[in-house]
Amino acid sequence: MRRLTRTSERWRLLARMDLFDRSAGQRPGKAQEEVLEGTLARIVFSRGEGAFTVARLAVEGQSEPVTVVGSLMGLPTGARLRLHGFYENNPRFGRQFRVDRYTELSPETLAGIRRYLGAGMIKGIGPEFAKRIVDRFGLHTLEILDAEPSRIREVPGIGPSRATAIQTAWAAQRRQREVMVFLQGYGVSPAFAARIYKRYGAAAVQRVRENPYRLAFDVWGIGFLSADRLASSLGIGRDSDVRVEAGVRHVLDKEGGVGHVYLPRTRLVEEAAALLDVDVGKVEAAVDRLARSGDLAIESTDDDMAVYEVGLYRAEVAVAAGLLRLLRTRRKPSRMDVDKVLARYEAEAQIALAPQQAKAIHRALVDPVLVITGGPGVGKTTIVRGIVNAVVRHGLNVSLAAPTGRAAKRLSEATAHPASTLHRLLEWRPAEGVFGRNASRPLPTDWLVVDESSMIDIRLMADLLAALADGTRLVLVGDADQLPSVGPGMVLRDVIESGCIPTVRLTEIFRQAAASLIVTNAHRIHDGIQPELGTAPAKGQPDTRDFFFIEEDDPARAAKTIRDLVVTRLPKHYGLRHNDIQVLTPMHRGELGATTLNGLLQDALTAGRPELRSGGRVFRVGDRVMQLRNNYDRDVFNGDVGEVLRVARNPEGDGQQLAVE
């Protein structure tokens, strides 16, 4: 399963957000940092436990509260704040103050202290008890809660249980404030400080001091380089063991992000030494330490040592063991007469199966594990329909699945049988980060057919095989020449090339598919043959070709041609909706990059419609949108495409929301 290079380049969003506050470089125009002091009058909206907050700040000398937006984690109404940031003009919500960082100040008046305590952030204290506490301790209230919290029992009406609850809640709030102050003191932005606190809680300061590099692996969005800057500010040396070990793990993690399951030790050491600017001997020692601690796994290969992140190593071993287990499991002899099954299917479907198709269905009904592979137009869908037909007719269970929702929907429509994503089939539990189906609770099915199997990475395949009971038959369907999975590994291709799993290769292109130049040329390009352009029809005859080559040297004219094709020519000629057309480009920037073409097409197709502006981007009703990161909680995956149906204002105040289908 160890593949370091691929026939086609993987694409993945690798940019990571910066741990440190870089917002000054993103300010509109020449906006300078300003300082704003006031009292938090109202929380309009808060998401992610304060990671993003919209609030109203009462500022002395101003008749109306100022709208402030940013990360204000754990702050109650009534809190006095010193905010650093800048004013901006939001197209929808007007002038507001964007918070870069903040300092919490102690309330200076009795009324301010009462409001602060009674805001609901401290369990056991509401407005009435806040008044009693302040009446008892006056302007020294907060000092006493910090230094002598047991004195809360002096307040009338506060018994032992309420006093304990108040002391516990106040201590938690104080620890949170200490963490935020510590992190912001080293330049960490409030948003990332909030994430760090959410991950480690009160132990955040200790964890970060011990090893700031853990942030790169424990907190989403924080990369190694940002953690490295924080470590430097904390006084950790460039050649320290903890830094070199983190650098080694970072290189493996980065390479896993582009699909590699392991790296040769020589390459890993060279890359890590160059990244860290340290001697290779330091890196060699770090690799050995990480192997001894169980963070890395090392295996001998023909010409080097293979170094794995231990989770990927275990997944690879589990895939090999899982396939072997299915192959070796003894099964009861099948009573199915496969020849009769095939004849019945042909009669009912009114088709004549090609020899390769008949062989594929036959093998799927008798082999414990089977791979069916082939390019477009070779009849894979017909084969899956035949498998489903045969299994269901004999009163057995068959489950259909695919890696993405879109692929599962196509599979269900093609077979008239329910299909689901692999994550739904395996009952993904987001809160726990595990699948509900596993070795101790396997899937209750006799056959599992998985389409688009080239998209399955090594980790997901390990989880899938673990959830298959002994005796379950597995059929993997897919095109091994398609782009591999986004995650590490090339499972389908490696399974085929291992020679250990029965495989049926489909090569015959059927008449209907062969009429398509797209299908024909896909196979010609795969075989290294020049594509065909077809013959133009006689004058007055319709042009039924589906493959064209339009040559244009000038980028601006090429962009205009693309716009005309999408907006007018293709919809008119083929009766297509604009959103049925997909434009592909090999780059993000430039006159023919995705950014420019998307803007050009958006202006032509959805100008004037309701819109949402976010992060410098505009989303309008009718726009096509693509998911860029797997969201297992919502069953949406990298590459899934949808359409914006409406833009609605969130009644809770978080600006606007998109409804996407």
Indicate the overall shape.
globular
Tell me the number of helical segments per DSSP (H or I, 4 or more residues long).
23
Biggest sheet, spatial arrangement of strands = 11-10-14-15-9-16
Considering the protein shown, what is the CATH homologous superfamily of the largest domain? P-loop containing nucleotide triphosphate hydrolases
| Unreliable residue runs | 1-26
Number of domains: 4
Q: What percentage of the residues does DSSP assign to strands (E)? A: 15-25%
How large, in whole angstroms, is the Cα Rg?
31 Å
Work out the number of β strands: 21
Task: Provide an overview of this structure.
The chain has 661 residues and is an alpha/beta fold. It folds into four domains: 23-185, OB fold (Dihydrolipoamide Acetyltransferase, E2P); 201-313, Arc Repressor Mutant, subunit A (Orthogonal Bundle), CATH 1.10.10; 329-512, Rossmann fold, CATH 3.40.50.300; 606-660, no CATH class. 40% of the residues lie in helices and 18% in strands. The protein contains 23 helices and 21 strands. The strands form six sheets. It has a six-stranded parallel beta sheet, sandwiched between helices. Strands 1-2-3-5-4 form a five-stranded mixed beta barrel. The chain has a three-stranded antiparallel beta sheet with strand order 6-8-7. Helix 1 (110-117) packs across helix 2 and helix 12 (310-328) crosses helix 18. The chain starts with 33 loop residues before the first strand and ends with a strand.
